[in-house]
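Q: Sequence in, structure out?
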Amino acid sequence: MYNHLLLSLVLFMGQTPLQQTGAGTPADAGDPEIIDTTDEPTADVIPRLWQSLDANFAAPQQPQFRSESTVSRTRRYAPAQGQAGVTSTRTPVSTLVTVRGMEENHVMGIGLVTGLAGTGDSGTAARQLLKNLLLTRNINLNLEDLTSKNIAVVRVEAVLPAGIRPGQSIDVRASTIGDCSSLEGGTLAMTELTDISGRYVFATAFGPVTAGGFSASGESASVTRNHVNVGTLPGGGKVEREVPTSIVSEHGYLFLDLRTAHDSLGNVVHVTEAANGMYPGVANASGDGKCIRVKVPADLPESQHAAFAHSILRLEVMSENVARIVINERTGVIVMGGDVRLQPGIITHGSLTVTISESPEVSQPGPLSDGTTEGVSRTDLDVVEEDSALILTKAAGTLQEVVDVLNVLGATPRDMITILQAMSQSGTLLAEIKRM
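A: Exactly. Output:
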């Protein structure tokens, strides 16, 4: 049985064990060894034949690649040392407050963009919206017949400024809500923009969409510039309904609401005192300390209400320097402003970096080994812990001193966010922290 197996293997290689070499015709150097089996015992043929087969059936080469991942720290950028300016400045009232009744209004609608170059939606939502649009023109088609890839369903949004009148143009923004890959070259069909309830139409939008970029792709490569799934229509919207606006309430009051970044009690007091300095006794601070109520003179005609409000908004007051730090953990942005101060303390920080690399390999069995292909996992684990000493931080009374103290730590922005939060909880940092 074993001889029959070897005979089959050799026939598979194109050679026969009974082929003999001639006296004057040696075999080519590149050909497999030809074994003379004449008058030889079977026990001697098998080892020599197996050596010949082993030279032609070499084991496959195993993968030699390895996955790697590293965490590096770039060199710190050292900006020029600046000098902190004055701790408080005179600021116009208009930068600290907003006039109630002058708010912007947002309107929204669902529209259809046509004329795309095969980059539209592939689902049924776009086809259903197209069918509804055709029905308004008394064209009834089956949904299965609408197979175009040149349409996309978009969300259309616009902002109506306070006091805008019907017939005025506004800017519109369109963004895809399906699997459309690009709005480049598309045109927005007539779309109604309504309030949040969807009952009242305040504007309409239509026209060509400006994507602000381009995309091109082939079978094996693609290129995209900017974000092409959102487009704008400059002046593509028209106001259809007026939004009622009045800066003076029905009881004859002008309300000045402090902006979020300046809603301190000091600013309320300063604005109230400035308004009373020009018009004695007309301004009063609200109980919550977030608004100033100004009494409009009863004999002042309505045509002068805007001038009266403007005369108060142009006043300059000594704004309070609020100590506030705004951080964004997603991007690592830290913004400090106002009268930020530090108490003396001790700080130490150390980073822990864990690097894990997975490089699975496939093990192929050798020929005639009756083995199976197996996957072998390879894991490379690297842990680096930074050894940092204790750092004594001195007190800082100005923003420049705060910057000098924090720069001594040498921490990255993301580490600095954690340090600032811990300093605020311990009382070392005298500032309000807001997270974006």
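The mean pLDDT is 79.
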